[in-house]
Amino acid sequence: MAQNYPTPAWMDTAVFYEVYPQSFQDSNGDGIGDLPGLISRLDYIRSLGANALWINPCFDSPFKDAGYDVRDYRKVAPRYGTNDDLIALFDAAHARGMHVILDLVPGHTSEEHEWFTASKRPERGEFSDRYIWTSTWLDNADGLPFIAGEAEREATYILNFFKSQPALNYGFAHPKLPWQKPALGEEARATADAMVEIMRFWLSRGADGFRVDMADSLVKHDDEGKPATIQTWNYMFDQIRPEFPNAAWVSEWGRPAQSMAAGFDADFYLDWRWGGNPNGYNMLLRNTDDSAVRGVDWSYFNADSGADITGFLGEYLPSLAAVQAVGGSFSLITCNHDTLRLAPRLTERERALAFGFLLTMPGAPFIYYGDEIGMRYRRLPTKEGGYSRTGSRTPMQWDSSPQAGFTTSSEPYLPVDPDASAPTVVSEMARPDSLWNQLATLLKLRAETPAFTTTSAFDVVLAERGNTLFAFTRGEDEGRRLVVVNPGREPHDVGAHGTTQVEYAIGSVSLDGDRVVVGPQSFAVLA
Ligand code: NOJ
Ligand code: CA
To answer: Which ligand is nearest to the CA of 413?
Structure first.
């Protein structure tokens, strides 16, 4: 059983804002977002009500997977600035009461990383076993993706994701071929130790933790439940967590029972289908065969779907129990850099209801940059390994100036949304009933209400088949809040559960004696 390191207190009130650095704010006119640009927008992020940042990888990279192909973990990519700029970002964030988590990619490097350059050499050396090499140049890789014919070394090597991303060697759960090293064996520990050093490098310079890429992918051919990968994380955390008790680790894993045993503080509920079936998160927002068009869509928050919340809860509640057992959390996201944005498939009203729900449920929520103004998904040609994800990665739309205030260059990293009516921060902040203003109001309420912390109590009040209303409480005793959400087109009602006033509402929600009447497409917090 894993040692359960206490989650730092700041995670209990954290509201994350995910920044895709190349698309957020350019400061030097080269068309690419950068760290000084991000620093200049911290007050904006704070004004929305977010108090924590997740920055996608900002390290030296050939950018064949937008930076998830790291060439040097200890060096900020020159296009984003310098290491001093990143340290300045930590300082500027801390000065505003904000925390910053970086993106750690432990499962693979770029094929241009110096470890890999050394590992490719035919003669044995310090890095020969840092990656997974077979015994001969003709070997296939026991069912894993591999590359042959690219290295002088007489062996083939295993990939973790793209061709440019060779897998680091954390060993095999059950080594059965001569080239397969054991999990937590000497070679695997050397890799894990190197990753601990990288964490230490940034934590000692002011980072507040990491979002960890493909955290479940470390040990190859691991068993059901990932026991060997879990032990590998326990091994790394035993070295690093006692030294940095205020740091937090959030896993890209999607299975909290496993990620919590590994020692993470939080896990993400991701836009992933398991075995072709929608998971709970999909059922909320992305229960469709084509996330770019409204078409046939069974998502709970699509008013036309008529879907109820029971499918989501069936999947979510066991995961919630797993995180509650260890004081961890399970994060809901508005979107991320791998996922198609909700606009324009869902209407602004549908998104407002969805965000109301996401921000009042347990867990530290993650807002993807631009979702607060309703930036839309666009079909674009691929950029830096983005493929269909590229259309969710376009420049932030700040104002109505050329290139929406993102850059002074006429050649932005990706094209700015050319639609004359495309929302901007300026336009949405000015519109009183905009999604932006609804979010900001709700985040203010969240910050003032102990019932809405990451780990405060959650109890289902009403969730029924065939009923679009979902009602739940957060917190306990006098501080308790009742949240009602009805994305459907018919009104529904539910008991008031001791609440006497509507604190915040979208649409029409009223108290009628001891009943709460929730109009079509409405949301409310009651106290
Ligand atoms: C997950 C990341 O979120 C994604 O953007 C990346 O392409 C893969 N992992 C590979 O690192
Ligand atoms: Ca720049």
So the answer is: 2
Residue 213 Cβ < 6 Å to ligand 1: yes
Boundary (domain end) residue, out of 421, 447, 473? 447
Q: Ligand 1 test: best mutation among 18, 19, 54, 161, most atoms within 8 Å of CB? A: 161
Give CA–CA dist 410/420, Å, rounded. 17
CATH classification of the domain holding 159? 3.90.400.10
> Residue 52 and residue 39: Cα distance in Å, rounded?
13
Residue 128 falls inside a structural domain:
yes
List the CATH number of the domain containing 407: 3.20.20.80
Both 324 and 431 in one domain: the answer is: yes
Residue 1 located in a structural domain? no
pTM for this prediction:
0.98
Question: Which residues, including other chains, have CB under 8 Å from residue 366's CB and lie 6 or more apart?
Answer: 16, 17, 18, 54, 268, 331, 332, 333, 334, 336
Q: Whose CA is nearest to atom 11 of ligand 1?
A: 68
- Of 71, 42, 103, 61, the C-alpha closest to 369 is 42
Place of tokens 């009461």: 97
Compute the distance between CA of residue 203 and CA of residue 86 in angstroms, rounded to an integer: 12
The predicted structure's pLDDT at residue 17:
99
| Structural domain total, the chain | 3
Structure letter (DSSP) for residue 333:
B
Which DSSP helix (H) or strand (E) runs through 36?
helix 35-40
The pLDDT value recorded for residue 1 is: 40
For residue 216, the CA-to-ligand 2 centroid distance in Å is 33
> How much distance in Å is there from the Cα of 351 to the middle of ligand 2?
31
Instruction: Judge contact between 98 and 447, C-beta under 8 A.
Output: no
In this structure, the residue with its CA closest to atom 6 of ligand 1 is 68
Q: Give me the average pLDDT of each 10-residue run along the chain (527 residues).
A: 78 98 98 99 98 98 98 99 99 98 98 98 98 98 97 98 98 98 98 98 99 98 98 98 98 97 97 88 92 88 97 97 95 97 97 98 98 97 98 98 98 97 98 98 98 98 98 96 98 97 98 97 98
What letter does residue 154 receive in the DSSP assignment? S
User: What does the alpha-carbon distance between residue 7 and residue 388 come to, in Å, rounded to a whole number?
Assistant: 35
Q: Return the residue whose CA atom lies nearest to atom 1 of ligand 1.
A: 213
Asked if residue 181 belongs to a domain, the reply is no
Tokens of 485: 């959400």
